Amino acid sequence: MSADSSAPLALKGQLRTTLAEIASTFPRVAFANSLGAEDMVLTHALAEASLSLRHFMLDTGRLPDETLRLADEVQRRYGIVVDRVRPDAAAVADYVGRHGRDAFYDSVELRQACCRIRKVQPLARALSGHDAWITGQRRAQSVTRADIALREHDAAHGIAKFNPLVHWSEQDVWDYLRANRVPWNALHDCGYPSIGCEPCTRAVRPGEDARAGRWWWESAASRECGLHVPPARRTGDAHEH
Questions:
Q1: Which residues on neighbouring strands pair with residue 62, listed in sequence order?
Q2: pLDDT for 3-56, tens place per residue?
Q3: Nearest-angstrom CA–CA distance, 129 and 85
Q4: What is the reported pTM?
Q5: Active site residue 115
Q6: Residue of 114, 115, 197, 225 marked catalytic
Q7: For residues 110 and 124, what is the distance between their CA atoms, to the nearest angstrom?
Q8: How far apart, in whole angstroms, are the C-alpha atoms of residue 186 and residue 35?
Q9: Distance in angstroms (rounded) separating the CA atoms of residues 21 and 53
Q10: Which residues have CB under 8 Å from 210's CB, separation 6+?
């Protein structure tokens, strides 16, 4: 797909309509911004549509410098303040004291415990008081996301969850970024299609899926941090385009 075809324009219009519908239906919606390629599409679309809602990022304390610099760039370019939600310092210190700073390499359980402290628990705090949240998840990203819907019920937090890019391909994402001159994380240019904490992310090899570089020492079926759990009840794809 070329950047000057009509397809990116159609996707852009659909995305803008979807985001406007979400914002009008859920006045207390928040956008969980990881500052990855997909979330930069959403950042630009929200800014262009002048949709004022809360943007936040989970600043785990182990993010790459490139990610933190992009957060500053978002504020300069779009005038958007990305709230930095950090983990509980005492919980981090307890984990490190008992297991070691990089114990997540030792077992899936210890990795999930680290993600729970640095991501899952901060997310719960970040979503408190909101009635919906928006993510940049796509079905094509990995086997763990193959069945996600545009709208889901987030049973863990008791609110609606939206994945506006659910049907987008990686090519769609990059066509949008380039056509609209949207800034992106510099690590994407170094073979990192999916970027998380620095010690848990590597560049992918040819033929690997987009999230193969996340927790690469584990089996593909376990490579989620717990932020996105399978919904207990789908509300369907009634608003999909």
A1: none
A2: 444 556 788 999 999 999 999 999 999 999 999 999 999 999 999 999 989 999
A3: 15
A4: 0.85
A5: no
A6: 225
A7: 20
A8: 11
A9: 13
A10: 140, 141, 142, 170, 193, 194, 204
